[in-house]
Amino acid sequence: MNINLIVIGKLKEDYLRSACGEYIKRLGRYCTFELHELDECRLSDDPSEKEIASALKKEAEQIKKYAKGMTVPLCIEGKQLTSPELSEKISSAGVSGQSTVTFIIGSSFGLDPDIKSMGAFKLSMSKMTFPHQLARVMLLEQIYRAFQISEGGKYHK
What we know:
single chain, 157 residues, alpha/beta
């Protein structure tokens, strides 16, 4: 199984990079993991809707270069899943012949509608708002937990 994570922007804080690194290391036992950190489009301090839409389109073009297999964009209007449900989605992708699952985290302005529409399903982490950098850590933890669940590991309680 291959897990592909596409994110807009880079992690700046050491503690977040460290947390991500730990989960990526743990995931090595279960899958081939690829991280694609793509550049966020620069916007003015008070961007117009048109400027935001243009930036999201440019980011979408970058994302499309790396998206493969079953794609799962993270967005607020996505479906919230339990950890066992996410585990089942990842497991069923492999069973149905999809060797790659690609998760996509956009910028603070979200994702272009084209990216959202190409998803097998849209995922929401919560109704609450989290910084995108923290969402990356949370997603990596949940992917690791999903593999532990499918293996019957002790991590998930």
